[in-house]
């Protein structure tokens, strides 16, 4: 860990301690483990010791669009046509239970499967899973065949249907390739959390919890052993790293 | 030349042939323009979107690729099953197969989002992908059929022709299985969640391939004013077409019945067969009535089924039915919403809970049709360059009247 | 005779196919070796201040494409960040004021100066922005520190809310 990262962490801890006196040291430790792992030094590749995951608490998720807007702003994928040719990296889905009539709202994005079918079917190997479990499209290889979109059970991927301009420097996007949620890999590599999680947390809803599923001390891992979580289309055995609770 | 074996090059054709070829060339040009238009603007100018990601180009491409392996059938029957009646047409059947495959691949490739990255598609492989395997299967098909043709046409190689024929036969079965598996492995889409797609595709390939072969032969008869097929051969082809069409109907029925039996597939079945608007209309109207029942009636008719008119009309209808079948499988399978949340009603600004609305654009259709033109033009060029056409049979063997079949627009 | 003629036709066909594939490969492989003396493009203010490129100029002129293509695999597929051969950094350092882009600094002038000359086309900037990320940091981007604090807070709360 470089010194600057350490300083950052120390600073954060101090600020945090001054702000939240009532909280015990365990939570500091658990919060802390989240970060020692992500502050990856320059020049080092993503590690397979880490498996990034997301836990979405549908009990706390309200009928808002904050995560979607945050993702749009961060990654610059806003569409202009108002139809299904627009990209959509993350979307809010409204659910009504057919029997009880219970209504819910939750975000769906790339679930970053442990066994991603999009990676299996991609003819050129552009769909790929990074060592730390993040599923990406290598857009330098993607030929735009869209077979991965046929294979994805969650409808998580978009094809870029038109020319793109004014991309973010850290998020290149271009016509004719397939794209999807990157779990904000560029932010994670930078020691930051995904934009949607940040926005949701800041809004006070705190329905999204991000962390390392391989680290038993991380907040997300601890939560997962205590509550029963749902994997969408569990019948397919894809083991998504984005899971849902209170669903 | 031409005395030692019974084949000739296509030479004495009339203006009709030229007109036909010119028309095909024009369609190909339009297809290229359409592809450029799609590529230049992006795919939003097509009917395809993020839910129906494969559209009309794929309907035509898969149709042609399936037809390609089926077109090799006549050759296979002659080499593998040693039927002499078919032997005369083996060369033609092989070159037609290669051309159809080229036409299908042409469409498939020009629809890619990044056509400029073709070199990546050919140099970078993911061996887990059935799609990548298919690229090998296609290349292999070209190579094996090429060798097969060589063994048939080169005197010194004739004795190996049987083995090459076997290889080609096995390869084409694998190829169609591979094509069917492109859809069969998509567990996420309910409509494709069936093991029957591969055998269904094989059965369909027999129909499409034979129909194409018949149409090309009849066009040749017509433009050259010669008789290529004797009565016996026509009888046989008619019988085969009937058998193959019934087989496809059988597999289609079984596929839908097994799905209806499984409760979780009731939704998608009623969508495909009853409630899905255009999809059931195409299924019943185009695939079943126009594309299966009608041709079966024509073929089964004691007199009409044996005339060139009857045969060519039935073949055209079968091909239209085949396109309908591909449309139902490819478009229907995608426009039914993904079932991510069983037991829940899902809504979103996106694809959830939506029956996708797919209206093919002109550009897509033109690109698709140009694949057929590529196949036909390539076949015609090959016929002109090398001796693929069997010599006409003696007129006194068959009915004296001049070939009367009108097959315009068919070849 | 027939055999001979046939063989000839085969030969012609094969040759034609071969030539076509050669042409195709040549087109795909780009302009090939550096045959012409390339221009030395003007340096941006930023580059002038920096004085040196990320590698010796002779090396950069010859090998920048390899470096970039290696780097993109490292970054995108393996997650390696902060290496010198990042396209972002080339753009940031080499961008100059561009009228076509409404006065923003872009790398177009620099990158295309030689490419035009060597008849190379690159598609990189169909996805990557050619604009330098200048001072005006978007306010939406939070400092890592405050983000970290927020997240720690959140994680802690999360624990306390466990049922």
What does this protein look like?
The complex is a heterotrimer of chains A (247), B (411) and C (163). Helix content of chain A is 29%, strand content 17%. Chain A is an alpha+beta fold. Chain A has one domain: 2-Layer Sandwich (Alpha-Beta Plaits), CATH 3.30.70. In chain A, a hairpin with a 5-residue loop joins strand 2 and strand 3 (103-109). Chain A is globular. Chain B has 411 residues and is mainly α. In chain B, helix 3 crosses helix 8 and helix 8 (161-184) crosses helix 9. Chain B is globular. The model of chain C is unreliable at 26-34, 136-143 and 157-163 (pLDDT under 50). Chain C is mostly helical and 163 residues long. Helices cover 56% and strands 2% of the residues of chain C. The longest helix of chain C has 28 residues, at 2-29. Classes of the chains: A alpha+beta (247), B mainly alpha (411), C mainly alpha (163). Chains in contact: A-B, A-C, B-C. Strand 2 of chain A pairs antiparallel with strand 2 (344-348) of chain B.
Summarize the structure in short.
The complex is a heterotrimer of chains A (247), B (411) and C (163). With 247 residues, chain A is α+β, with helices and mostly antiparallel strands.
Topology:
The complex is a heterotrimer of chains A (247), B (411) and C (163).
Chain A: H1 3-19, H2 25-38, E1 52-57, H3 66-75, E2 90-97, E3 103-109, H4 117-121, E4 127-129, E5 135-137, H5 147-151, E6 158-159, E7 178-179, H6 185-188, H7 195-202, E8 208-212, H8 219-226, E9 229-230, E10 242-245
Parallel strand pairs in A: 1-10
Antiparallel strand pairs in A: 1-8, 2-3, 4-5, 6-7, 9-10
Helix pairs in contact in A: 3-7
Chain B: E1 7-8, H1 15-41, H2 56-71, H3 73-80, H4 84-87, H5 90-110, H6 118-123, H7 130-153, H8 161-184, H9 197-224, H10 231-261, H11 266-275, H12 278-300, H13 308-335, E2 344-348, H14 362-385, E3 389-390
Antiparallel strand pairs in B: 1-3
Chain C: H1 2-29, H2 45-50, H3 57-78, H4 87-94, E1 96-97, E2 105-106, H5 108-118, H6 144-160
C-alpha Rg of chain C, in Å? 25 Å
- Quote the average pLDDT of chain B: 88
The CATH class label of chain B is Mainly Alpha
Give the domain tally of chain B: 1
Low-confidence regions of chain B: 396-411
Greatest chain-chain interface? A-C, 67 and 41 residues
What's the helix-strand series of chain C? HHHHEEHH
| Shape category of chain C | globular
- Tell me the series of helices and strands of chain B, N- to C-terminal: EHHHHHHHHHHHHHEHE
Class by alpha and beta content of chain B: mainly alpha
The structural class of chain C is mainly alpha
Over the alpha carbons, how many angstroms does the gyration radius of chain B reach?
Answer: 22 Å
Distance, first to last CA of chain C: 92 Å
Percent strand of chain C equals under 5%
